[in-house]
Amino acid sequence: MKVADIIGRFSLEVSAGESGLEREVTGGYCGDLLSDVMANAEKGTIWITIQRHQNIVAVALLKELAAIVLANGCRPDPETVEKAKEEGIPLLFSALPAYKLAGMLYELGIE
Amino acid sequence: MKRYKTDLHIHSCLSPCGDLDMSPRRIVKRCREIGLDIIALCDHNSAENAAPAVRLGKDLGVQVLPGMEINSREEVHTLAIFDTVDQALAMQERIYGALNGTNRPEVFGDQVRANEFDEVEGFNDRLLIGAVDLGLKEIISNIHKLGGLSIASHIDRPSYSLLSQLGFVPPGVDLDAVEVSRPQWMKEEGKDILKDLGLPAVTFSDAHFLAEIGRRLSVFCMEAATVEELRLALWGKWGRTVEM
pTM for the complete prediction? Predict the structure, then answer.
C-alpha cells in the first residue's frame, strides 16, 4: 500500500513532502521519544507521533521511513514543515489520536 | 583564580517530587556543611523559592544562583541559571504564561513555598511537573535574552532528556552546556556523542533530598560566582576552567 492510498482512506491532511506520496508502506510504528524510534522503527514504516520538533524529519530520513503522521491535532513546528519540504518526507496530519490511527492502519493490513 | 565547588541542579520542596525537608534554609545550611561554594536552586518550571535561598546564601556564605528546570514542549528538561532573582522571575513569568493545568498534591506531591525562616508561606497550585507550551529553541533564546545560562539536564537519562526526546541535538540549539548524570557514561557510550556535540559537559546532583546535595558536582576555576564567569569557564576562556 502506498502513502497516497492511506491518505485517501483516512482523509489525512498533507503538510509537506508531496513528492514522497508514492512510497510503499510496509509497517507501522508509534512513538514520541526519538531515541526509541531511532532504535526500533523499521524501513518503510508509517510513523505516528505527537512529537512536533524538526528532528522528526531527520529521524524519518535516517530510518528511511515512508511517512510521518502527526496525531491528535498536533500542528508541526514551522521548521519541521520546512525540513520535510526540503527532504521530501511526507508529513501528514490527523485530528485522531495515535491509538485510533494505529488501530485503523492495523485493520488495513499494515502490521 | 578561585576554585568553586559547584552544584547547579538542586530541587527544593517547591518541586512536587522534592522532599519536604528541602526548604531553602536546610538546603543552604547543608551546602555550607559539605563545603559547596556555588549552588543553583532549580525547581520544575518555577523560581518561587529562589529569593529566600539567595538571601540565606548571603547570610551563610554560599553563593546561591536563582534558576529553574524548564520542561519544554518536547519534554526536554533544561536548566536556566541567572544572576538575579528578578531575571529568574521574569523567566518564570514567561513559563507560567505557557504552563497549563493544576497540581494534584496527592498524585504528584506538595509544592511548598517556604520562607527563609523555614516556614511554609503557601502552596503553588500550578501543574509544575507539566510541560510548557514552548519549544526548546524558544526557551533557550528566552533564557539568553534575560542573561541566563542554559544547560540541558541529564542528557544521558532515558526520560526527559535532550537525547531521549529528540534523539540528537538539533541544529540551531544554542545551549551553553550539557549535564551528565553518570560520569561513567561519558567514558563509554557517551564518549562519541559528546565529541560530536561540541558542547561542554558538567555534572550536578539533581538533588531531591538533602543527602543527595553535592553527590555529583563540578569544580569551576574562575574569578567570581557569576553567570558570565561560569560561561567563560565552560568554554575554557581566559584561563577559566571547569572539571568534574
Answer: 0.88
